[in-house]
Amino acid sequence: MPATCDAVVIGAGVNGLSLALRLRRAGLRTLVVEQAAFVGGMARTEEPLLAGFRHNPHANYLAYGAVNPLERAFDFASAGLVTLTPEAQHGLCFADGRPPLILYRNDLTQRSGESLRQYSDRDAHTYVRLKGAANALSPVMAKSLYSPPARESASRLVAAADHIFGGALNDRSARDVIDTLFEADEVRSLFYQLAAETGLSIETPGSGVGFLTFTLWLVGQLRLPVGGMRAYADAIAETARREGVEFALDAPVESITLQAGRAVGVTLAGHGHVGARAVASSAGVYATLAGMVPDAAFSAQESARILAYAATEGPTLATLIFCLSAPPAYSSARWNADIDRCFRTLVGYGGARETLAHLRDIERGMLPPPSAALRVNSLWDPSQAPAGRHVAGGDVLMPAPSSFDPSDWEAVSASFIEAFIEVWGSHAPNMTPDTVLAGRFMPPERYDRALLLGEGTGQYRTGIERLYLCGASTWPGGGAHGACGYNAFGAIAEDLGLKAATRRD
Ligand SMILES: Cc1cc2nc3c(=O)[nH]c(=O)nc-3n(C[C@H](O)[C@H](O)[C@H](O)COP(=O)(O)OP(=O)(O)OC[C@H]3O[C@@H](n4cnc5c(N)ncnc54)[C@H](O)[C@@H]3O)c2cc1C
């Protein structure tokens, strides 16, 4: 453990690791301190149920490789990263065995069109046109995600959305836009769900821009890291080690040391003090500012702002995990067998009206009916399960964490799993309590989903000099993209007068 270094980064999740890579490239002696014994944070892989069944309890896919400047500047493949891009990416299947809807990989958009054509010629045509326009946004998305928030990027996205829509969107909601563009009930249901998963509150005015840009752009570019999400974090960490970044694992930060109102280091449980010229935290706004910094460091107004942020909550995600003796065989597969090899299959969503009711319930704080976006990673990566067996996981949109009493979770989880297996079986008759060897519904973790908004590189500065935020509370928010850490570098570089401040990797 060094007694001093140039920069301490708190947290070895994807954002902390991304920031550390840039700091080191700029020549700073950089130490990443992590409370867990492993790197990755929410990008991790575990065996919490049966031996040999490997699950990703949070993030499961990579979606930003095409625009992530770090994936170009560093060779993660040489540090062990292998990824696969399944052909069939997003599927919606139905309990009554109607034809499934499948959206394919970006290079197979025509096949997505053929799938939508089963329900509407017009919708198929519209989707292919919109998806082409959204794909062309990659340079705009790259600039917008991997730069501090700027009015100019926001107006560029609004202009792009207006263009894709074919007229001024004004304040239209994602639901309104979807209803205007698509006529088939099934197609609307699929897009409502995808928009909600990308974090949009689909009936909120203005959310239409997000659907036409971010949601449609993300569709079709999901990658699976072989070996699980942990393999992604491990590859970034290994690259960072090769570059000279130092790591302290099993080293929780107890406090951030301040001198004359400036952050000058951290105190680690069991490891003492490490001095630094700058400290950046990906541990979350409240955990950092209320947990690691003495109250007296903030004015009453700043403390009130931190408390108000901590109370900002919205829908979140929880994860279902299952060990299976066989992969699901959906009844919809008689129309298109690809639904059985779809990377993320929506189960438990019916037509547009049910999906809307479902999403409204979640926003109102009610437990959703049994439903999930399911993946069976072992179909592509057999190392995830014992021979002949399979792992499944599911993202479940959930109301804000404070809607639950944590002491009720065991009961909520048991009844949700039982009801989910019944619904799953109605879509894939082989999914019975016999095929499902074990299952668990992981509680939604409290984590920052809201952005603590600030202008430009100010987004990453706190009220304390040389103390920075670089986690998912900063622009551009949640996702295993590392962009928050990538952008936080700009603020640190400006303040420390680093030459690389203006250079993009
Ligand atoms: C259920 C779920 C599913 C998701 N699925 C996807 C997906 O498929 N694809 C995608 O791109 N994104 C997904 N996301 C979002 C994505 O996982 C996160 O936004 C991203 O991983 C956050 O990275 P981070 O580095 O900011 O934070 P984290 O990964 O949370 O890292 C913060 C780190 O700080 C450490 N830390 C905290 N306190 C201390 C302390 N006192 N001392 C030292 N260390 C500390 C933590 O242990 C942790 O390792 C999902 C999120 C959830 C919740």
- Measured distance between first and last alpha carbons: 29 Å
Structural class comes to: alpha/beta
- Name the overall outline: globular
Task: Count the DSSP helices.
Answer: 15
Bound molecules: flavin-adenine dinucleotide
Tally of DSSP β-strands:
17
Task: Report the CATH C-level class of the largest domain.
Answer: Alpha Beta
- Within the largest sheet, what's the order of strands? 5-4-13-14-15-12-16
Number of domains: 2
Radius of gyration: 23 Å
Average pLDDT figure: 94
* CATH topology grouping of the largest domain: Polyamine Oxidase, Chain A, domain 2
Q: Which CATH-level-2 architecture of the largest domain?
A: Alpha-Beta Complex
Helix % is 25-40%
Largest sheet: 7 strands, mixed
Residue windows where pLDDT falls under 50 for at least 5 positions: 501-505
Beta-strand level of the residues, as a percent range? Answer: 15-25%
How would you explain this protein's 3D organization?
- This protein has 505 residues and is of the alpha/beta class.
- It has 2 domains: 7-43 and 226-311 and 450-502, FAD/NAD(P)-binding domain; 84-222 and 313-442, Polyamine Oxidase, Chain A, domain 2, CATH 3.90.660.
- Helix content is 34%, strand content 17%.
- It contains 15 helices and 17 strands.
- It has a 7-stranded mixed sheet with strand order 5-4-13-14-15-12-16, with helices on both faces. A 5-stranded parallel sheet has the order 7-2-1-11-17, covered by helices on one side.
- A hairpin with a 3-residue loop joins strand 9 and strand 10.
- The two termini are 29 Å apart.
- Residues 501-505 have low confidence and may be disordered.
- The structure holds flavin-adenine dinucleotide.
- Flavin-adenine dinucleotide binds at residues 10-16, 33-36, 41-43, 58-61, 63, 252-253, 282-283, 287, 317, 319, 395, 447, 471-472, 478-480, 484.
